Each structure stands twice: as structure tokens, then as C-alpha cells.
Amino acid sequence: MEYKDYYKILGVERTATQAEIKKAYRKLARKYHPDVNPGDKSSEQRFKEINEAQEVLTDPEKRRKYDQLGSQYQQWQQSGQPGSDFDWSQWYGAGKASPYGAPGGGRVEYRDIGDMFGGGGGFSDFFESLFGGMGGAGTRARARAPQRGQDYEQPVDITLEEAFGGAARLLHLGDRRLEVKIPAGVKTGSKVRMAGEGAPGGAGSGDLFLKINVLPHHTFERKGNDLYRDVDVDLYTAILGGEVRVATLSGNISLRIPPETQSGRTIRLQGQGMPSLQNPQQRGDLYVKVRVKLPTKLSEQEKTLFKQLAQLRQ
To answer: What is the mean pLDDT of residues 251-256?
Structure first.
């Protein structure tokens, strides 16, 4: 069994007061809360560790027992012994408890922080082994609370045009038909949540998440909320300057080409990119890369004029 350093998890000294422990816990809990980091498994695991640490260090009886264990465990390591050989049996919750639960094999659960993640045990085997029999101290032991239903995830493909203006999808859930609105500004990896449309459970149904995949576009490349595209410009417009029509996702616009524009030059069109998911009124930019197209099938007269131009340039 792996020893857990609860003081290190909360980032406090072993002599920390209750006020210092609670302050450290609140700061870390805000940072790693699943509502702040949706879908981030590492933050979810960190949040569980933080809750487990404060469960022990804010309970005087649990902290006393944990500190006694920590002192002996440190002495064991300092003597050069491997941590895996440490005798944990004397520290099991009460009586002759197994390493994975309370006496007699019946697992005792505490305040189940796993409920907010849609199921799963809240505390580690380390915690359960040490405190599984301490139902009368601090936190009251209880049977596992009813679990929330499982969340479902469904991939959905949309076009770039649908991501630009928003879209709708009609889903069939058993004998029900559900119309889902996909907001403007979504990108590949975005999730649209349909509350209560997941699996049923004793503590309420789970949610349905549509995982968005924006299909590649034949003209535009998307980077964040900015768009990129190429536009062909004839040689004469590139040299003398002029205007060309450029298609955007919101319609055609006129793009001014400065005189002597080199092939490969990029011109920025502010506010012609994708809408922001958080604020659709704000849009990214469109970057247009000029590709100068050389004339072909020249007449003899055109060739003569180009030769004259070449001689003038020399």
C-alpha cells in the first residue's frame, strides 16, 4: 500500500493550524474543482486527493492517528528499509480489518466526494484501511449514497459553416426525439451538454454530452477563432493594385490589393473570422494569402511587350 502525505498534498507544514489547513484546502479546491476543469481527469484526481487530505487533517482524531503513523513510517524509511516492507496491519481501521475495508469485509463509506463525478469511490484504499473503523469520530460513517446516473457521450460532425452560424441536430433516444441546439463558435472538442438526458440513477439521471467534430473545409483553415485562406490575384492587379472579390463565411467582400503586392503576402481582415463561443458578437480575423497567377498562352505581341519590359528593368 502506498503512503499518502496529506500535508504535502495540501502544501502545508506538519505543524499547520486548522485555519491554515482550511485556507490551503479552499484555495486548491477552487483551482481543481471539476466545474472549473470539465473533463480533465488529472484535475479530478487531484480534487479527490485534496478532499481526502482535508478529511483527515481537519478531524482531530484522524489527524492524531495519521501523525503517529507518519512518524513511524518516516523512521522506517530513514533506517534504510523499503516502504513496501512496512507493516501496515497495526494501523488498519479497527480490529482485524482487511486492507480494503472495514472489519468483516463490509466496506464503510464516508462523505462520498465521488458523487460529483457521477459515481465511483471517493477515498483511497490508504484512507479506508486506516480510518474504515472510525465511524464515531468526526465524520459519521454511512452506507453509500444513491448514485447519479452515468453520463453519455455522442460524437457529432458539423461543417465549418454550421460552427460559424450555429446548428441543430435531431437525436433519437429510444422512442423519444430530441432536438439539440449547437451554438455558434464551437470547435473540435467542444461539448454540448444536455442535462438529465443520460442514464437514470438513484440520485438523478446523468447528462448527455455531444462531442463536436468540425469537418475540414475546402477553402478555410481554422486556428482558434481566426480563419486562413488563399486568394488568386492576376499579375496586373498585383503590380498596379486594385480590388478582388473574396468569399468569407458571412458573404463576399472587396479586398484592396496594394500596388506591387508580392505573391505570398498575407492581408488581415479584422472581424471576419469565427465567432467566440463565449461571446458570439466578438469574432476572430480572416487572413488572406495572395497567390499571384501568371498569364499563360501569351500572344506574340504580349511576348514582345514583356521582352521590352524586361529590357527596361535591366
So the answer is: 93
